[in-house]
Please model this.
Amino acid sequence: DAGVTQSPTHLIKTRGQQVTLRCSPKSGHDTVSWYQQALGQGPQFIFQYYEEEERQRGNFPDRFSGHQFPNYSSELNVNALLLGDSALYLCASSFGQSDITDTQYFGPGTRLTVL
Amino acid sequence: AQSVTQLGSHVSVSEGALVLLRCNYSSSVPPYLFWYVQYPNQGLQLLLKYTTGATLVKGINGFEAEFKKSETSFHLTKPSAHMSDAAEYFCAVTQGGKLIFGQGTELSVKP
Model:
């Protein structure tokens, strides 16, 4: 049973560029959440997708956008990259709508470096 | 809004010693609490979770945590540390389906 997978593992971009990160959820899961983890910090919630729609969003600017596909996989897009966007981006999958007890399972993350 | 505070950004113990990582939360509703572990250059792995019922929760790798409502705490313990326990540990609480994390505690284990 494959767990949560993310691609790419590492990425280097320059300021002003755009980036797309990808995530495939754990088998049987239909909800995908994205988190940003800056160096030395705990993960911060970006947004969550369920049934191909953004269900809720954290305190991130509109430069951060996402998408969920019919097979439940998801993309995170960041436009106009800033140096401060350098971080580990984590994808987590879970099952069900608004079930606050449902466990989120995390992928290995994508390390984004903005130069 | 919920929040999580982890006391001590870095904890160092000797191999075989007790591990105690502290977590306090603030929540206006009954919380659902989690501990995750992160090894270097990896994602987060679930150690254990508390939802309802028994307040002492057992997890993987010999870890356990006790939910104490009166103290708003969910401290993580392990009776005997192993070198392989060296990692970053995160306490988290759910808020409307999203996880709110603490700042993390780095555990070092000395031989």
About this structure: Chain B touches chain A at residues 4, 32, 34, 36, 41-46, 49, 51-52, 90, 92, 94-104 (CB under 8 Å).
